[in-house]
Amino acid sequence: MITEEQVIESLETVLVPAVNRSIVGMNLVRGVTTTDKEVSVTLASTGLIPGAQDWISTKAKEAIKKLPEVNDVKVEYSDVKAMDLNEIDHIIAVMSGKGGVGKSLVSSLLAVALRRKGYEVGILDADITGPSIPKMFGLIDRPSGSETGILPVLSSSGVEIMSINLLLPNEDDAVIWRGPLIGNTIKQFGEEVLWGKLDYLIVDLPPGTADAPLTLMQSFPVSGVVVVFTPQDLVEMIVRKAVNMARKMDKRVLGVVENMSYLYVPEIDKKIEIFGRSRGEEMARATDAPLLGQLPIDPELAKLCDEGGIESYDGEIVAKLGDSLIKAMSAEDN
Ligand SMILES: Nc1ncnc2c1ncn2[C@@H]1O[C@H](COP(=O)(O)OP(=O)(O)OP(=O)(O)O)[C@@H](O)[C@H]1O
Ligand SMILES: [Mg+2]
User: Fold this and answer.
1) CA quadruple 228, 233, 235, 240: dihedral, nearest 10
2) Which residue's CA is the closest to the ligand 1 atom numbered 30?
3) Separation of CA 296 from chain center
């Protein structure tokens, strides 16, 4: 008789339409029973329109029938809430004391770095009024979903992405919402988006220390916070404020990242500190958090952000950023 493990392995090949991630990865497989005669599978219908349910059902039956000695396959659906299906190991919030320091870029690069290491990664663009993640990843597809859940959009390297920008009728529409509505939207992203099984969910927060970061930290089990700053942040206080806010909410500060730290000029093989002396180490000391990385000003980065090609950035800083994040996570775990 075939085992439950064999059935689940065969279901790894069945992809959720539009997301293109397996029904196992999306955590839609709720139960498997096998007898001599029959394999019976229960799937969650979360976020799936009837057409998608039929399609998955057909594909699941085909996949299971390829296993030896299977005569009959039954697929049933049950209603489960998206939030009950989400199994996210680490939620990492990316913050900054002020706007325009490269928070979205750092969020994207962290996700790219972790994905390259083989992790299952998602990005929640919680910057409701200034969403920029879809643009950096070149996403144009709208998320699909049903009354029971919204499905994220998968980037070309396989990062799950959800942003208000993907849901608006026109991506240039300005979102002028009052605080409570923003808070509700962020909460909904946690409750109604089907992320499935993820190793890491990176949350790109709006700048500053106002309501939205608070709501997020209250309503999501955030495991750690990364704070981004630039050498232009003359006042250490702005960065410290962000760090203090995280600590006050009992969130671990995994580290700080200095963006636009220097410009590398290959012709003279020198790093030039355009925006003044790098304050990476100093800021790390002042906030008592490790310095996770210092990103150069790189015209290639700006170009890729604009063109939606952030995943093809091959600067060595990407891997370094991922390594130091993982190191900080494991240090904190102890
Ligand atoms: N290190 C860098 N090298 C080159 N360009 C950069 C760098 N960092 C940021 N940029 C450019 O600055 C733009 C803004 O960065 P980003 O969107 O990440 O900032 P942000 O902190 O998220 O801003 P906001 O506060 O508006 O959300 C990027 O689209 C990119 O073009
Ligand atoms: Mg941003």
Assistant:
1) 0
2) 302
3) 23
User: What predicted TM-score, i.e. pTM, was given to this entire model?
Assistant: 0.93
Q: How far apart are CA 94 and CA 34, in angstroms?
A: 45
Listed in order, the ranges of the chain carrying CATH 3.40.50.300 are: 84-333
For residue 220, CA distances in Å to 134, 183, 187, 315 come to 22, 12, 8, 32
Q: Is the pLDDT of residue 171 over 70?
A: no
Whole-angstrom CA distances from 122 to 119, 157, 236 are 10, 11, 31
Q: Does domain 84-333 have CATH number 3.40.50.300?
A: yes
Strand segments (E) across the chain:
29-34, 38-44, 72-78, 87-96, 121-125, 145-146, 149-150, 153-154, 160-163, 197-204, 224-229, 253-258, 263-265, 270-272, 291-294
The sheet carrying 253-258 orders its strands as: 153-154, 160-163, 121-125, 197-204, 87-96, 224-229, 253-258, 291-294
The dotted CATH code for 4-80 is 3.30.300.130
Of 66, 26, 22, 19, nearest to 44 by C-alpha is 26
Residues of the chain with CATH 3.30.300.130: 4-80
Percent of the chain surpassing pLDDT 90: 63
Residue 333 has pLDDT above 60, yes or no: no
Quickly tell me which residue has 């891997």 as its tokens. 319
Among protein residues, the one whose CA lies closest to atom 1 of ligand 1: 297
Q: Is the CB of 101 under 6 A from ligand 1?
A: yes
Measured by CA distance, the residue closest to atom 13 of ligand 1 is 102
